[in-house]
């Protein structure tokens, strides 16, 4: 039994074939009638066409005759001609056009029985259809003939293509174009990108899908004479710092101003929750203790203990959670705070967040009010390294004290000062003092009018850190000394 020749495409419509096909899946062409290709085919295809056999008449093209003017001769397109095969015979009328998308081209050379190299069998050749191919329903009509050329009959090979649109519809809404959406109700959070879509609970726009800035990425608060600013920085994916600033009154009516700044430990679990819990607990403790007459230094100590308890409570997770993630540390953070009264300046801390004193009269030197709980500070205190060598070491910022269930032992540090002149206390995380480590550097970065404009000064200091690289979260509070009378505001 003879075998059918192995073809990669239908000889009639160039539809791709699979091994074992007996009929074309597109036009139904009987593949068993295709003759076996000869071993030697001297015909050379040029630009997709086949040279006609010797002595065979070729297609008759209209003559391009100039009209004696500067107007060029009319251009004749292939679609304007009656289709012919290599022997010069007309193709049967109604020959279907090729598919709109170019089919895969067979690697085999066209045989001598194919029409003009386009894969159609020549009339009379084996396997050629007996009648004209039916015109598919809904197929586009032949285009009108170009100006200056004879009209073309509605038969032959189609070379034209449907016009393609210059622009394709977007797969998603364009955030640059606000759609006709109903006006959101008052108080509804609106997308910062398209200004039209409502923001869902996950922080994404329901219209354009844009992720919205998180509330903690940049925070500012101005409470009378004290102000604070916190920023995510330029490298971190979230802000793990937190702060609390407030004012209260002592039992005798004199004012007391407080500021708490916390820095979440990034290597621990939920550092952002730890810093927020600690700052809130410490602030609430101070606001409750100072009006009762508790000494500010004792009140600061008790506030740090309350903050530690709040962070410890975050570690109360199910036992199964620890089994699935035993490598994770408990939530942890550092803390630094200051309380300013008309006579006293109190600071308290655990970790490596700092407080600086900058006098209003810059002719007197500034000072750092805290000592870090860090590897570098321990090396300097033990006399094993000087400060420059210790802080140049890669272990310099490894903290030795923090708030959290994994802390070795809670040792709140407090100190009390009685400045003899006005000034400000700069309470900050290492995201700022990394760019102004020495007290003199911090004083140089602080505006001269900081005592009168604490919010502006806090913004300037955050900008100083961002300009320096912003490698970490940046948080700073500016507290004027002495505490001004109740009700005094910030510029």
Question: Quick gist of this model?
Answer:
With 491 residues, this protein is an alpha+beta fold. It has 8 helices and 16 strands. The protein has a 6-stranded antiparallel beta sheet. Strands 7, 8, 9, 10, 13 and 14 form a 6-stranded antiparallel beta sheet that branches. The chain has a two-stranded antiparallel sheet with strand order 1-2.
Overview of the molecule:
Residues 225-481 form the PPM-type phosphatase domain. Residues 61-75, 111-122 have a biased composition (Low complexity). InterPro entries: PPM-type-like_dom_sf (IPR036457), PPM-type_phosphatase-like_dom (IPR001932), Znf_ribbon (IPR059113). Residues 40-185 are annotated as: Disordered. The longest helix has 19 residues, at 271-289. The model is unreliable at 41-49, 75-79, 81-88, 105-123, 131-143 and 145-159 (pLDDT under 50). This protein has 491 residues and is an alpha+beta fold. The protein starts with 44 loop residues before the first strand and ends in a 10-residue tail after the last strand. Among the domains are: 8-28 and 187-212, no CATH class; 218-316 and 329-481, 4-Layer Sandwich (Phosphatase 2c, domain 1), CATH 3.60.40.10. The protein has helices at 271-289, 296-313, 319-324, 375-381, 387-392, 430-433, 439-445, 454-468; strands at residues 45-46, 49-50, 114-115, 120-121, 218-223, 226-231, 241-249, 255-264, 332-340, 345-350, 354-359, 367-368, 403-404, 413-417, 423-428, 474-481. The chain has a six-stranded antiparallel sheet with strand order 5-6-16-15-11-12.
